[in-house]
Amino acid sequence: MNEESTKSFRESLYFALNLFNKHEWYEAHDAFEDIWNNLVGDERQVIQGILQVSVSQFHLSKGNINGATILLGEGLGRIKTRTNINLGIDLELFCNSLEKLLKKLQYKEILNENDKPYLRLLDSEENKIHSQSKEE
Question: Which domains does the chain have, with CATH numbers?
Fold first, then answer.
């Protein structure tokens, strides 16, 4: 990727990540799908996994626990073996939270607000964002 496409990718990723973290699941799905369409290989698989998690949360918000559980498991499976892929997201932390949520869904435990998945930027990415916003 050249510098311009890297910047565009990063901006698209942050936009999608923001939607996801605000629990705007349907919109996050669309934003991640736009990114997914332009990727190949492991990066594409990770983004597809995040897409599946987003859709799982949409299903959960509509009361479709079975659909949510299936998609969450598929998304987790796609990401878990690729936590070394650097998209600027803490994939290990994300997978840990997904595993806990999946267990709760499988055992039909009561969920609370803290169970909703959250995509955390790696510290190096947060530093890039802050330095870019100061430059603009």
Answer: 3-135 (1.10.3450.10)
